[in-house]
Amino acid sequence: MPDGYTTSTALVLKLVIIGNSGVGKSSIIMRYSGEPFRESYIYTIGVDFKLKTLLLNGKVIRLQIWDTAGQERFKTFTTSYYRGADGIIMVYDITNIGSFNAITEWLKEVDRYVNDRDVTILLMGNKCESSDRCISWSEGQRLATEKGVLFTECSAKEGTNINAAFLETTKHMLSAQGVKERQHHHRSTVDIIATDACTPMCCFR
User: Fold this and answer.
1) Which of these, 67, 30, 22, lies nearest to 48 by C-alpha position?
2) Matching NCBIfam families, A to Z (predicted)?
3) What's residue 69's pLDDT?
């Protein structure tokens, strides 16, 4: 925790990660947590979450990152976790056209369960390091523009754009109308510092 601040002064923001199974949601979150990339993860069952702490614009932010299962049979269970979300990251795999086509359905689900029109939404294409790309950057950007959401590509394997994507999303959540301060009693010992060597900001709308 930064000097001069306590958990009682922190602003809690809820960020939900959604997308089809196998697109790399858990890998992205693990990368952002500072853990090394692993080629395989056990699929998330239901919902898991991590807590992060960062100092942004003079505020201590406690970021609750909810990792939802992409399997269809868990959707009914996970819809309750949309409630109260300040931000949503929708992930697709740039080598899997099915995961990209499914984004429209994920957006419909967000519209159905998220009543707050100030929620920040980021569309993120994962595995941008792959030579097996079948969805171009421009296709992802075009869909994001059409739906009125932010857009970037990342690589959980190489760590590209991960920190920048979460930082930019958090900035938009902070500036969104209706964000409220909420008290909490969770502990977190990890401070976030954006250290990506790439130039990701050009990727955001």
Assistant:
1) 67
2) small_GTP
3) 62
- For residue 114, the SS3 value is coil
pLDDT tens sequence across 5-51: 455 577 889 999 999 988 999 889 988 987 654 555 545 444 567 88
84: domain range?
7-203
- Say if pTM beats, i.e. exceeds, 0.85: no
The CATH number covering residue 157 comes to: 3.40.50.300
Extract the residue ranges of the chain whose pLDDT is less than 70: 1-8, 35-48, 69-79, 116-117, 177-205
Task: Please indicate, yes or no, if residue 2 is contained in any of the structural domains.
Answer: no
CB 172 within 8 A of CB 18: no
Strand residues in the chain grouped as ranges (E): 11-18, 47-56, 59-68, 87-93, 120-126, 150-153
Q: Which residue has the tokens 């502990």?
A: 187
Q: CA-CA distance, 102 to 104, in Å (whole number)?
A: 5
Nearest to 92 by CA among 34, 134, 35, 120: 134
In total, how many domains does the chain have?
Answer: 1
Within a domain: 1? no
For the chain, what's the residue count?
205
